[in-house]
Amino acid sequence: MDLSLLNRITTNPKVLSGKPIIRGMRISVIHILKMLSRGITEREILDEYPTLEKDDIRACLVYAAHVMDTKEEEAIHGMINLSS
Q1: Helix 29-37 vs helix 54-83: angle between axes, to the nearest 10 degrees?
Q2: Torsion of CA 54, 70, 36, 31, to 10 degrees
Q3: Class of domain 3-83
Q4: What is the pLDDT confidence band of residue 55, given thresholds at 50, 70 and 90?
């Protein structure tokens, strides 16, 4: 997983209520992830959003994986602490 792609993901409280967005644009990570989950191809996304780059879509996937890893680790540590 190329964590350097996370540099493409930003937040700004003045843009989309602070949701993670791509390179400061008004395109949220969750919007791109939902498009991918509906089977919309990378090419179709890039055609619909010409300002996006392939690495922006990859960055969304890396971001989602990173968040899941972090949350999973927090949950595991919480379970360990509860059983102590």
Answers
A1: 100
A2: -90
A3: mainly alpha
A4: very high
Give the CA distances from residue 84 to residues 48, 71, 78, in Å, rounded to whole numbers and listed in that order: 52, 20, 10
Q: Domain locations in the chain?
A: 3-83
pLDDT at 30: 98
Closest among 46, 50, 51, 58 to 8, alpha carbons compared: 58
pTM: 0.81
What CA–CA distance (Å, rounded) separates 81 from 76?
Answer: 9
Helices (H), the chain: 29-37, 42-48, 54-83
Q: What is the pLDDT of residues 56-81, one digit of tens each?
A: 999 999 999 999 888 766 655 665 55
